[in-house]
# Entry
Amino acid sequence: MVNFVSHTVIIGFTIGATILIASSQLKHITGIFVPKSKSFIHTLIDLYQGAGDANMYLIIIALVTFNYNYFDQKNLFKIV
# Structure
């Protein structure tokens, strides 16, 4: 079945899924309360409105974790 769908459509679907998953995890990364909403736009609006309530400790932990994983994939952290 996948052979009948163009590569561009598959890439678009994958990117869309990635954006939705990432936006649904932002509430956990920032510590902002976001009620379950009907759409992606409502989630972004709630995150924007609650930006003042963001927990800086959670954001720092998320950034350190992200950077470690990114650089670890590039094999920049060599553990002997």
Summary: Residues 30 and 57 are 9 Å apart (CA to CA). DSSP finds three helices and no strands in the chain. Helices lie at 7-30, 40-49, 56-73.
